[in-house]
Amino acid sequence: MKQKNYITKQKIDVKTFNLQLEDYFKNRKQKKYYNFNDIINITGISERTFRYRINELKNKYKDVPSLLVKKNRVWKIHYTLVDEFFTKYNPRTITLSNYDWQTFINWSLAENYDKDYHQQLIDEIMEKFDEYSFHYCIEKTKKGLNHVHIITNVDKNEITTEVDEILSYYLNKNAYRLQVEEINKKSMAVRYINN
Description:
4-stranded antiparallel beta sheet, Alpha-Beta Plaits, alpha+beta, 3-stranded antiparallel beta sheet, 38% helix, globular
């Protein structure tokens, strides 16, 4: 006689469900809105600069109310506006987001190589440009292939040829795809790499 497997639904009380939901939005999902303290920590600006910028942005985005929301004397700032809070000159406090990142590098290989292989390629690039800074991540695609994202303060034109030479030394030109672009929004690039 065949035994049937049934899936039984577990009943979860409302309090547990709300706690799980809150945990999901706090820890697992990236923030959509930042508050005053978040903006200060990300950008390294002072409270006075924050007030000055919020007044500018209030007028600039008055037609798009979902980008800046003030609720109970607390500002909620959409993540796409973070770059508008950066200082125009040298910041007092340097953070990962307000650092002078200039170039975003991305490569993916046709075949699956392990993280150590990608790390070796990154190390060689960092050796060539040892006086510059790099922030990177190695992640898997939906197909399970490792690929690399790097942000650096090296000029796009200067680093493109070097990265291409290093990759083509080990791989056939058809075995990889390389993309090197200038960074438009630093906070978005850092957010993507940290994700």
